[in-house]
Amino acid sequence: MSARQLAQQLAVSVGTLSAIENGRVGTSSERVVDLADVLGVRADRLLAGIAEPIQDGRWEQLVDPVVLAGAGGWRRFEPLDLDPALRGALASFLEFGYHGSTMRGIAERAGLSVAGLYHYYAGKQQLLVAILDRTMGELQQRTSAARHGASDPWTRFAHLVECQVLFHSHRRELGFIGATEMRSLAAPARGRIAEMRREEQSRVDAETVAACRAGVFRTPQPKEAARAVVTLCTAIPQWYRRAGPSTPEEIAQWYVDFALDLVQCDPAVRPRHG
């Protein structure tokens, strides 16, 4: 592409383009984004060093730690708290998928300019990683608290199932992205987040095996049963709707019963709901 052609696409004169190139004239970050679009490169690579990120206290921490104080705190869910960019990305990924989303479309949903969005996130991949980190971080906090609220493996198992169901219904949007967009993650984030997912499965595996050894669960395939249980829970975002006839708490009770039946729990010590 010649300098004249590039100038035409940017709606500037060749002289202005030359002055920008040689540092004699400044340019806005919005124009840098336009230049990146024309050249077919990532805008963050051109923006580096052009402008400092905007300092805004609202953006210093994406999400406060989940408050789990008190008995059963892992059962309580506040409205999802995401920064504007992540809200825009989440909405776009849900509607169009990761590969169908654009930074320009995400910026529009977030109420930001494209350049403003690039001040906070280098691209779609960083947005996706942030969403999945948020997803797995909260889930791990909650399941850790759920396990600590019980003294035997069969009750811990029931708590873990309840926690998984509550999370994947109250946080349906996060769970849906977690189930559908893992393939879109690049290394090394993909390996790290996959390991977090394996840790969640291993928690259910461990309690299932322990309850089998204690003679309370009678399934001859404890690990296979545990995988089936977790798969039931993580599939909830595919069908759950807030306007539906059942609450997350009702669904959680049903799924705990399904899970206890699947592992063939001894009726004499079957955990009670709540």
Structure description:
Helices cover 60% and strands 0% of the residues. With 274 residues, the chain is mainly alpha-helical. It has two domains: 3-51, no CATH class; 73-80 and 131-269, Orthogonal Bundle (Tetracycline Repressor, domain 2), CATH 1.10.357. Helix 8 (124-148) packs antiparallel against helix 9 (153-170) and helix 8 packs parallel to helix 11. Mean pLDDT is 85; it is low at 47-64. This is AcrR family transcriptional regulator/DNA-binding XRE family transcriptional regulator. Residues 1-46 form the HTH cro/C1-type domain. Residues 102-121 bind DNA. It comes from Janibacter cremeus.
List keywords for this structure.
Lambda_DNA-bd_dom_sf; DNA-binding transcription factor activity; Cro/C1-type_HTH; 274 residues; 2 domains; 13 helices; Tetracycline Repressor, domain 2; DNA-binding; 0% strand; mainly alpha
